[in-house]
Specification:
With 262 residues, the protein is mostly beta strands. It is built from no helices and 23 strands. The chain has a 23-stranded parallel beta sheet that branches. The relative contact order is 0.10.
Length: 262
C-alpha cells in the first residue's frame, strides 16, 4: 500500500515489479491518493496459484500513467473509485472472474487503450453498487483494445466488453461521452452465450442519463447484436462499426437513438 492518510502522494514511480500471493489475498497493489504517478511493467498474479480480489486499486488518484501491466488470475483487475486522468495502455489482462476496469464514483478522463483482454467477465464495468455516493463518469475512452471472450459460461456468466449498470435511483448516475472505439470484440463459439457485448441499464426513476459513443469497432459472435439497453435515458451514437451476429441487428429496440442512427 502506498498512502499517507489525508495527503496526496506525489510522483511515485514503480517499474519492473511483480506481485504474487500464496493463496487468496485482498489487494495486490494499493496506490491511494496518488498523483502524477508512473507504473511500468507491473505484473499482479501471473499464475493460477496466486489470486487477489483486486489486483490494482487506484482509488482517489489522478494523473496516473500505467504502461504494460500484466494482470491475470484475479477477481478484479483495476479498481477506479473517484479518479481522473488515469491512462492504462499496452496491458495484458487474462482470467479475471470480474472485470478489467471497475469504475464508480467520479471518473473524469480515464482511459484504457491498446490492450489484450481475454477470458474475463467484464471488460469495463461501471457499477454504482460499489459506491455510497453519486456516480459521474465523463469522457471515458476505451480504444484500440482486443477482447476475446472464451472462458465458458459456468465461470464467466456475462462476458460483456462494456457494462454500464445503475442499481439505485437514489444515487444520481451520469455516464457522459463514454467512447468505445477501434476495438475488436470476439465472442468465441460455444464458450460465450452473450446476447449483446455492450449492456446499459438505468434504475427505474433515475434522473441521470447515459451517452455512449460506439464507433469504428469490429464485433463478432454475439447471439443477438451489439448493444442492449433496458431503460429510458440511454442515448447511443453508433457509427462505422462492423458486426457479425446471429441476427444481424446492431442495437436492441429499447436503445434510445437519434433518428439518423436507426
Amino acid at each position: 500500500t502506498i498512502s499517507d492518510p489525508g495527503k496526496w502522494i506525489y510522483t511515485p514511480v514503480l517499474e519492473n515489479l511483480a506481485i504474487q500471493s500464496t493463496g487468496a489475498a485482498e489487494v495486490g497493489l494499493h496506490c491511494d491518493s496518488c498523483s502524477d504517478a508512473r507504473i511500468t511493467n507491473l505484473t499482479v498474479g501471473g499464475n493460477p496459484s496466486s489470486h487477489f480480489a483486486v489486483a490494482l486499486d487506484l482509488s482517489n488518484s489522478n494523473g496516473v500513467f500505467i504502461e504494460h501491466p500484466i494482470i491475470s488470475y484475479n477477481t478484479k483487475g483495476i479498481l477506479l473509485i473517484d479518479t481522473s486522468a488515469i491512462t492504462i495502455q499496452g496491458g495484458d489482462f487474462f482470467a479475471l472472474t470480474d472485470g478489467v476496469l471497475t469504475i464508480c464514483g467520479k471518473s473524469i478522463w480515464d482511459s484504457l487503450r491498446n490492450s489484450w483482454i481475454e477470458m474475463v467477465d467484464y471488460g469495463i464495468n461501471i457499477d454504482d453498487s460499489l459506491c455510497k455516493s453519486h456516480t459521474t463518469v465523463e469522457s471515458l475512452t476505451i480504444s484500440g483494445n482486443a477482447f476475446l471472450f472464451n472462458g465458458g459460461v459456468l465461470l464467466y456468466k456475462h462476458q460483456l466488453s462494456l457494462r454500464i449498470n445503475n442499481l439505485s435511483k437514489e444515487q444520481r448516475f451520469v455516464a457522459d461521452q463514454v467512447l468505445f472505439t477501434q476495438n475488436h470484440v470476439l465472442m468465441a463459439g460455444g464458450l460465450s452465450a452473450t446476447s449483446y457485448p455492450i449492456a446499459v441499464a438505468l434504475a427505474q426513476g433515475q434522473r441521470g442519463y447515459v451517452h455512449l459513443i460506439v464507433a469504428d469497432n469490429f464485433f463478432s459472435g454475439a447471439s443477438s447484436g451489439i448493444a442492449g439497453c433496458d431503460k429510458p435515458g440511454v442515448s447511443i451514437t453508433y457509427s462505422d462499426n462492423r458486426s457479425y451476429t446471429k441476427t444481424g441487428d446492431a442495437l436492441s429496440d429499447d436503445c434510445a437513438l437519434p433518428k439518423s442512427a436507426r
